[in-house]
Amino acid sequence: MITKIQRSLNTLRKRNTKLRHKVPYSLRQILLNSSYTRNKLRNTFIANKYRSEDINVYHCCIQKTGSVWISSILNDPLVYQYSGLTLYNYQGAIRQKQTDPLIHLKEPFPKKSIVSAMKISHENYTNDILKNPGSSKVFFVMRDPRELVISWYFSTKKNHILGNHSNMGVHRDKLNELDQKEGIKYAIDQFYNKDKFGLLESWMNHKDDKNILILRYENLISDSVNEFSRLFKFLDIRISDEKLKQLIYDYSFEKITGREIGVANENSHLRGGGKDSWRQYFDEEILAYFYEKSNDVAKKMGYE
Question: Which residues lie closer than 8 Å to 99 by C-beta, 6 or more apart?
Fold first, then answer.
């Protein structure tokens, strides 16, 4: 019963919450700590069948890689039941660049928590997070950077919630002044200016590190059961294959949106353009501009 109720609440929260866009960072952290406390309280009513040896798990990523979807799965009661880990919903402070130091972090995250989702570089993870004693795991979710650009373009122009403490309104006004080609080039500029390409590259420099699992968003979407099985094995979350299949189905793109993967809706926050949808929008001029700004990051990530 708890599992069914929690999944329904997670689905509602995923698409309808506006709180994180409307309040200052300090108050948001208090509310998020309250969310963590509620998660801990909920978990006291769930029989724990296995406890992972890890003290913390860190879910790192970049925007537009299904972070809310992944967090919802990691917050499902089944995950706690077979790991003993409780989700801590992280919201970072505003930084000029996404590779700037995390100066707002003053203490370690709670023990036995999954910290999700951190839009940070590998250097941020290594140097800026105060770690608890004991073992921890980190995984990073990447996506074709050309898809990231297109997803950012449509989301910012049409459906991203305009918060009181972001520049989304400024970007939206600018994108609505530009034609599509110039708008996509503007999106590429924002990735360059915010060092989002640098964030991606920082993790690629450590892709052979056995203590880091790097996942492709495209594979998580197209082969969810096998990819989450690989992730859970890495994180020592011991859910049976049968329960995992049901878990993934309950949070599937098709169930949440009513659309098949690859059927795009440009007016939806869950656009669902699928793999290689960027080819519909990138002509030779835009592609050349992307290469100029991105330092060949798509190639370094294995997308070329």
Answer: 121, 123, 124, 195, 198, 199, 202
* Structural domain count of the chain: 1
Query: Tens of pLDDT along 244-272?
Result: 999 999 998 777 665 565 555 555 445 45
pLDDT digits (tens, 9 = 90+) for 177-208: 999 999 999 999 999 999 999 999 999 999 99
**In terms of residue numbers, what domain contains 101?**
2-300
CATH number for the domain that contains residue 62: 3.40.50.300
